[in-house]
Amino acid sequence: MQSILLAVLTALSTPPPNPIIDAQLTLVNSTQNGKLYKTSQDGREIPILHVWGTAREQGRAQGLLLAEQIHQFMIVDMDQYYTTIPDQVPMGDLPEWLQNAIKNAVGPEVPAVINTALEYVYLRQYEYLATSPSEPLEEMAGIAEGMCESGKIPNCDLKSITKSVHYTNMLPELIRMSCSMTGAWGSATPTGKLTQHRSLDFGLGPFANNQVVVTHHFDALSESHDFTAMSFPGLVGAVTGFSENIGLSEKVWDIAGGGTPSGTYDGMPVVGVIRNILQFVTSKDEAYAYTSRLPRTWGVWLGVGDVSSQQFRALQYQMSEVKSYDYMNISQATNGTEIDHVVYVDRHPQPSHDPAMYNALKMFPGNLTGLNIAQNVPRLTRSGDVHLAVFDFAEEQVYMGFGLTNANWTSYGVDDAGMACYRPLLRFSMPSFWSEKRPTA
C-alpha cells in the first residue's frame, strides 16, 4: 500500500509530457550574407539566424542582424552576471595573483576582475584560436564590425566591442556546465536509426533568456559542412549542434566525491573543438581521431552520433587522453545500468548513483523515438534548465526547448516551470535548416 501511495504522489508531483509546437518562422530582417527569422515558443520569441560566406562575412552578418541582442548579452548583462560568479571560478591553472584578485574582489570591482581572468584565458589560448580551421578570430572581428556598422549601438567603439566579444567567448572555459546526454539506436529504437539527446544545465544567469539558433552555410567547394547550433548572441564556438552528418552533445566531467580531471588553458577551447567537429567532421570515428590529436584543455564528455553509422559514442575528453565508450562499456565510467544500444550520461558527477535517467529510458523499451525522449527524459531527470535538443535522425526532425527566467535571472518561476525541460518544445525539420536560400542582395 505504501509503495502504491508513493507512486501516486510521485505521479501527481511530476510535470506532464512537454507540449510540442511545430515551429513557424517569420522573416524579421536580412542583409548581405544573413537572414534573421523568429519563431514563438509559448509566447516567447526565439531568433533563428542563417549566415553565409567566410568567417568574417558570417560574423559581420550576425553583428548587423543581432547588434542589440549581442550588446545586451555580452556587455550589459555580463557585467551584472559577473558579480555573482567569483566563487564559481575554478582556480586551477590560474596564476596566484589572479586567484587572489578574484577571491578579494567585492562589489563593483568584480566585473573588471572577471574580465581580467577572461583576458588571461584568451591570451593563453590565442595561438590555438588563431590557427583553428574555423577561423574564430575572424568571425569575432566580423561580429564587432557588424555591430558598429548597424547603427544600433550608440557611440560604438570598435576596439572596446571587439574585446568584449573576445572575452565573453572565453566564458565557457572559465565557468563550466553540468549537463546530460543520450544516444539510442538499434534495438532501442523502432527503426534502428539514431535518436540523440542533449540537455544543457547552466543554472541561473542571462543565458536562458538570451538564446539564438544559428545555421552556418558554406560554399559548395569548401571543406566545411553546413551546421546548426543552439547558441547565444555573439558566441562563435558551439555547445549544442547538428549537421547533415553528425550530432553533438556535451557535459562537464565532474568526478563523484569532488573535483575534476586535471586540465590546462593551453589548448583549443572546448566550445571551439565542438564547433570544429560540427563544421569539418562527418563521423563519430573521425571525431574520436580529431579529438585524440588535439592539445586538449579541460575534462568534458562529448556525445557524438553520426548519420552514416546511425550510432552514438560518448567520448571522455581530458587533457591526458580521450576514451570512447559504447553501450557495452559506458557503465565502467558512469555506474549506469546497461541498456542495449543506449549510451547515457546523467547530469550528476560521475560515476553517478541516481537511477532517474535509467528509469526514464526504460519506460520506452524499443521505442526511444525523438518524441518519447523529448517529452519525457529531460523532465523526468530534471535536466535541461537553459536548453535541450533531441535529434531524431529517423524522422529528420529536431526538438528544441528553451528555458526562461524572471527578468533579473534569480528564478525559473514557481516549481521551476521556466526550465527548458518543463516548457513546450519546438519541432523543426532538419532539412529546412540546410535548404534556406542565400540572400540575393
Textual characterization of the structure:
This protein is 33% helix and 23% strand. The protein has a 10-stranded mixed beta sheet, with helices on one face. Mean pLDDT is 94; it is low at 1-12. α3 (67-82) packs across α5 (110-131), α3 (67-82) packs across α6 and α3 (67-82) packs across α7. The protein has helices at residues 2-13, 55-65, 67-82, 96-104, 110-131, 136-149, 158-168, 171-174, 270-280, 284-292, 331-334, 356-361, 370-381, 430-434, and strands at 20-22, 26-31, 34-41, 44-52, 178-184, 195-201, 212-217, 227-231, 240-243, 246-252, 300-306, 311-317, 322-325, 342-345, 387-392, 397-402, 425-429. The chain has 441 residues and is an alpha+beta fold.
SSE inventory with pairings:
Blueprint: H1 2-13, E1 20-22, E2 26-31, E3 34-41, E4 44-52, H2 55-65, H3 67-82, H4 96-104, H5 110-131, H6 136-149, H7 158-168, H8 171-174, E5 178-184, E6 195-201, E7 212-217, E8 227-231, E9 240-243, E10 246-252, H9 270-280, H10 284-292, E11 300-306, E12 311-317, E13 322-325, H11 331-334, E14 342-345, H12 356-361, H13 370-381, E15 387-392, E16 397-402, E17 425-429, H14 430-434
Parallel strand pairs: 1-17, 4-7
Antiparallel strand pairs: 2-3, 3-4, 5-6, 5-14, 6-15, 7-8, 8-9, 9-10, 10-11, 11-12, 12-13, 15-16, 16-17
Helix pairs in contact: 2-6, 3-5, 3-6, 3-7, 5-7, 6-7
